[in-house]
Write a structure and sequence with these properties.
4-stranded antiparallel beta sheet; about 15% strand; 10 strands; globular
């Protein structure tokens, strides 16, 4: 928080009341007031800081990064210099000490400039948060300062070729040795940043049986350069082209026991708690991209003339824009509510155990709802904005086709939206 405060030099903006009557349809003022509703002055200042960075350091280069598959490490480190590298980590070792609502506001603004780059930043922040929350004093001291500055970049390794939605079926193993190490064998798939990043949080199974089977999931920190740690080719993806995605292979990788994050067997719990926050962050990315797409669609509709008048004067298109704005606003409300609940859970003794306020189960369901609502809304709005642009929206000269490609994967990763609905329905039917 103190780090961010250094960059917020102007007074926080004063909220303006909704104009009445509205100055044209869906005026910028209306959309701004809707997005700012219930935010504190400090959060509005965070928003402006992120927006300025997004406009100057992300948006002008996003199309080129997409075209060349460039991973913009320099811009990521500039973001870290503003406090965006370890937003949810404690301040003693370089973290910013923000809450999840703060993070949602920041990620939404950054995603307006470049969805793909912001999405990687959310993953890096999840890795840093896991080490800060579950690591011991030595682990935090060793890795957090350099993760906060993004001198070190992090990757999260849960998914495997045969273990996607069924993450508990992972088969990567970590076998203890007599000399204080684990031997890690197996592979991970669809790992963001892999090959270009430095720190890998790997969920693996420590076998309990003599035949090498059974055992709970543990969380190990591996570092790039460890012998036996290798990477596949950069995947040729539909979107998210400004960050590499590769398979990660482990062949008898010797990992010191001191790299075990949390107790042995606690890895699945660590992974799931990390994903609660990750789902909010990726939802915020969807909302930010959708908001940028709505801005483009509104401006285009007011400029494009057909049948002798701007197409914004046709009621069918007006209703489409109204639905787009409503979907984004609803998604934002659900997501910020879930972020608030997750903040309350994290502040409770025992992480929100029964009797301590917001339960872990309640926060998890809220995060699942938010992920579904925000990512579905973001994709729908981007797709509708492309439709409003007609054939022009399908061209790479316009950013809409990139936005559609980038947000589509948000309905898949961090737990598919079908799995999110399973989480929600399971809680309902208990």
């Amino acid at each position: 928080m103190a780090l961010l405060a250094r960059f917020i030099t102007r007074a926080a903006p004063t909220r303006r009341p909704l104009p009445w009557p509205l100055v044209r349809f869906l005026s910028v003022e209306v959309l701004e007031n809707l997005a700012a509703a219930s935010l504190t002055d400090e959060q509005l200042a965070f928003r402006d800081l992120a927006r300025d960075f997004s406009k100057s350091e992300l948006e002008p280069y996003a199309a080129e990064w997409d075209r060349t598959c460039h991973f913009p490490v320099d811009q990521l480190r500039k973001a870290a210099s503003l406090g965006f590298g370890a937003m949810f980590c404690k301040e003693d070792l370089g973290g910013t000490g923000l809450g999840r609502v703060d993070g949602a506001v920041i990620f939404e603004e950054l995603a307006r400039g470049c969805t793909s780059t912001t999405a990687y930043l959310t993953i890096h922040n999840m890795v840093a948060w896991m080490i800060d929350t579950f690591g011991d004093v030595e682990q935090r001291s060793k890795w957090l300062p350099r993760l906060a500055s993004m001198e070190l970049l992090g990757s999260y390794c849960l998914t495997e070729p045969g273990a996607g939605s069924d993450a508990g079926s992972l088969i990567t193993t970590a076998v203890p040795t007599a000399d204080g190490h684990y031997l890690v064998n197996g592979s991970k798939a669809f790992i963001s940043g892999a090959g270009a990043t430095d720190v890998y949080l790997v969920m693996c199974r420590v076998p309990s049986g003599q035949d090498g089977t059974g055992g709970g999931v543990s969380c190990l920190l591996l570092e790039k350069g460890m012998e036996g740690l290798t990477f596949g080719e950069n995947e040729a993806k539909m979107g998210w082209k400004s960050q590499p995605t590769r398979q990660v292979f482990f062949d008898q990788v010797r990992v010191p026991v001191s790299h075990l994050i949390g107790p042995e067997g606690a890895g699945f719990k660590i992974a799931m708690q990390g994903l609660d926050g990750g789902r909010l962050s990726i939802g915020a990315c969807s909302l930010g991209t959708g908001a940028a797409a709505l801005d483009l669609a509104k401006a285009y509709a007011q400029e494009r003339r057909q049948f002798g008048r701007p197409i914004s004067e046709f009621q069918a298109l007006q209703f489409k824009l109204a639905d787009m704005a409503t979907d984004l606003h609803a998604g934002r409300l659900v997501l910020r509510n879930a972020a608030s609940l997750l903040d309350q859970r994290s502040k409770q003794p025992g992480g929100g155990q029964p009797g301590g306020g917001v339960s872990a189960a309640t926060a998890t369901v809220a995060c699942a709802m938010a992920k579904v609502k925000a990512t579905d809304a973001g994709f729908k709005v981007c797709n509708e904005a492309l439709q409003i642009h007609g054939g022009y929206g399908y061209l790479r000269d316009y950013p809409l086709e990139r936005m559609v490609r980038d947000v589509r994967v948000h309905q898949i990763l961090e737990g598919t939206n079908e799995v999110m609905r399973h989480i929600i329905s399971r809680a309902l039917l208990k």
